[in-house]
């Protein structure tokens, strides 16, 4: 799920700028072809954003010149801030958020999140009978059933004897 | 023997299932029909009442049944993890179908050093209702652009729970899939990063889950996801501060989660209604950004018409996303933590 993202949500903008910066990344894990593809896509998307914004501004201007605009639109059309693409505002907010995250790092430092206790798997050792008993019972019960193929295909799963069922 | 075949030979697939008799057969058949079939398939019949276990057994899978319902997908998967004897383990949802070469494509990730988990590209199996269509665009957008950029920086935000593979020893060391948040996949992904492991996104490995068709199912799923996101930020925020790209991604996503719903649900409607109808453009102003990767992705799949007709649904779904994110933030802030796992679909 992409959280939120109305208009030019910051998440979308951040990924767009990340893609534009990919050729400059020091150690991208992607291959050059993939980097080139994502970069090209980001350039096209950026151009589309700017063009669509210009189209909106031109439409507002046309309505204003035609004298059909509401007072607010007329004010907006004459306002320099309205003409400045919303992307500039978004980038400013984005930089502020990133700076806050950076500041947080310096203020509180990194502290790894505790992980739950390890799971003892049948791969390494016999599992606890308390945990597995009922499961193994069902498992053995199922084994006794007649297995049918799937359509023309026989089930290819290789039987592996579980450490606890042996 | 190819590397992919070697990987599959040492792979167990875990399929957690609670009352999934209707969809499980397709999932198991898609595993059988893999170009490199897995060594073992464990279906966790989480005390179903619809004969899920019988369906699985009839199709040749091994069935595990816990003594009582585990309460969550994470619980069921971790229950099965104790029975895994292979070097690699994969988790897929019981309503998810894999493309025939999905395991083969996913296996390439594990050739690289330090990779503990890998996930594939997700697309809805059915694209009919407004919610499925919205999700189709959402997935095309995020998986063909967002996730690929994140992967290029070595930090996919999440290894999707519906189709991911892991190294068994690493997964066991992390305690399997934890039930401490509603988004166990995000929790695990971020935990892996914190301990220095890598996670890869393999766009050629495709899977097709059934997405919620109705509002009721969608609501449960979005509620879980939204709460899971907030819970994971609360749990991991100090742990991920040391990873610049992930820190930035999460900070931005957190900011969006906090302010975008208010802007979408309150500010834009008010401005549109009382100041100027032009402000309604704010709902769709990012259409070019969304449409370009979506249409390119759909064109490659010969689904351009479907993508075009689904685009408006994405904007409807987004309003639903905002609503549930806002509610999750408010609930979690008031200490009303979502702790009961309700299946979304």
Using brief descriptors, characterize the structure shown.
heterodimer; A: 166 residues; mainly alpha; 57% helix; elongated; disordered N terminus; disordered C terminus; B: 345 residues; alpha/beta; eight-stranded mixed β-sheet; 12 helices; 8 strands
Low-confidence stretches of chain B: none
* Number of E-type strands of chain A: 0
What global shape of chain B is seen?
globular
> What kind of sheet is the major sheet of chain A?
none
- Tally the helices of chain B: what do you get? 12
Query: Mean of residue pLDDT of chain B?
Result: 93
Number of strands of chain B: 8
β-strand percent of chain A reads: under 5%
The H-and-E topology of chain B, N to C, reads as HEHEHEHEEHEHEHHEHHHH
Which sequence of SSEs, written as H and E, runs from N to C of chain A?
HHHHHH
Mean pLDDT of chain A: 68
Q: Give Rg of chain B in angstroms.
A: 20 Å
Described by the principal axes of the CA atoms, the overall outline of chain A is elongated
Record the SSE blueprint.
The complex is a heterodimer of chains A (166) and B (345).
Chain A: H1 10-21, H2 32-65, H3 71-77, H4 80-83, H5 86-108, H6 129-143
Helix pairs in contact in A: 1-2, 2-3
Chain B: H1 3-9, E1 11-17, H2 21-32, E2 40-45, H3 52-58, E3 62-64, H4 73-81, E4 88-92, E5 96-98, H5 102-107, E6 115-122, H6 130-152, E7 163-167, H7 168-173, H8 184-194, E8 198-209, H9 215-236, H10 244-274, H11 287-300, H12 304-333
Parallel strand pairs in B: 1-2, 1-4, 2-3, 6-8
Antiparallel strand pairs in B: 4-7, 5-8, 6-7
């Amino acid at each position: 799920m992409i959280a939120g993202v109305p208009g030019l949500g910051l998440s979308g903008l951040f990924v767009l700028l990340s893609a534009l910066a990919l050729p400059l990344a020091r150690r991208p894990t992607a291959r050059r072809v993939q980097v080139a593809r994502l970069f090209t896509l980001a350039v096209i998307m950026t151009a589309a954003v700017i063009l669509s914004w210009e189209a909106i501004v031109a439409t507002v201007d046309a309505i204003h010149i035609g004298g059909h605009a509401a007072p607010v639109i007329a004010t907006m059309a004459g306002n320099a801030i309205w003409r400045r693409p919303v992307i500039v505002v978004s980038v400013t907010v984005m930089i502020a958020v990133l700076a806050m995250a950076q500041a947080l790092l310096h203020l509180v430092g990194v502290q790894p999140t505790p992980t739950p206790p390890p799971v003892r798997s049948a791969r390494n050792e016999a599992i606890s009978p308390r945990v597995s008993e009922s499961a193994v019972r069902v498992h053995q019960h199922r084994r006794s059933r007649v297995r049918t193929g799937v359509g023309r295909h026989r089930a290819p799963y290789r039987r592996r004897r579980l450490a606890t069922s042996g | 023997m190819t590397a992919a075949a070697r990987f599959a030979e040492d792979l167990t697939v875990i399929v957690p299932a609670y009352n999934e008799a209707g969809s499980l057969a397709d999932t198991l058949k898609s595993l059988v029909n893999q170009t490199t079939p897995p060594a073992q398939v464990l279906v966790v019949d989480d005390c179903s009442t619809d004969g899920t276990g019988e369906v699985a057994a009839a199709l040749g899978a091994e069935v595990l049944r816990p003594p009582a319902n585990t309460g969550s997908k994470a619980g069921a998967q971790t229950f099965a993890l104790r029975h895994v004897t292979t070097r690699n383990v994969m988790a897929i949802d019981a309503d998810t179908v894999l493309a025939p070469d999905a395991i083969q494509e996913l296996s390439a990730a594990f050739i690289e050093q330090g990779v503990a988990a890998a996930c594939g590209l997700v697309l809805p199996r059915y694209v009919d209702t407004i919610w499925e269509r919205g999700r189709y665009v959402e997935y095309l957008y995020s998986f063909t652009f967002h996730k690929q950029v994140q992967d290029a920086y070595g930090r996919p935000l999440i290894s999707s729970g519906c189709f991911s593979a892991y190294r068994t020893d690493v997964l066991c060391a992390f305690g399997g899939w934890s039930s401490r948040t509603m988004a166990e996949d995000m929790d695990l992904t971020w935990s892996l990063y914190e301990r220095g492991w890598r996670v890869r996104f393999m766009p050629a490995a495709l899977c097709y889950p059934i997405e919620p068709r109705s509002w009721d199912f969608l609501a449960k799923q979005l509620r879980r996801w939204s709460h899971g996101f907030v819970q994971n930020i609360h749990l991991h925020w100090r742990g991920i501060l040391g990873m610049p790209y992930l820190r930035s991604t999460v900070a931005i996503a957190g900011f969006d989660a906090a302010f975008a719903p208010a802007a979408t649900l309150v500010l834009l409607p008010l401005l549109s209604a009382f100041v100027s109808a032009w402000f309604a453009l704010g709902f769709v102003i990012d259409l070019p950004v969304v449409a370009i990767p979506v249409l390119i992705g759909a064109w490659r799949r010969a689904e351009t018409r479907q993508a075009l007709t689904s685009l408006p649904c994405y904007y409807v779904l987004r309003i639903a996303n905002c609503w549930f994110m806002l509610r999750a933030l408010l609930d979690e802030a008031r200490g009303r933590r979502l702790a009961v796992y309700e299946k979304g679909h």
